[in-house]
Design goal:
Length: 79
């Protein structure tokens, strides 16, 4: 199961130097200071490591840790 902790760990491993303790689960990545390349790196890591492909049309749903967790859980249910 994909949880908040799993996504936080993945973000920490993907985005070097991020202080994940300052990023709340509802915080928007862009407002936190991440750019589109950071988000693309996170989404690629989710695809590669967790097997969840997030198409471009759904990226807006994944603008926070909670958004990613919810999206992944919905994908699991749909399978």
């Amino acid at each position: 199961m994909i949880t908040e902790q799993v996504i936080k760990k993945l973000i920490t491993e993907t985005i070097k130097g991020i202080d994940i303790s300052r990023l709340g689960i509802e915080d928007n990545f862009v407002e936190f200071g991440l750019d589109s390349l950071d988000l693309a790196s996170i989404l690629m890591a989710i695809d590669e490591r967790l097997g969840v492909n997030i198409p471009d049309k759904d990226v807006d749903q994944c603008s926070s840790i909670q958004g990613i967790v919810d999206y992944c859980r919905n994908k699991e249910v749909a399978l």
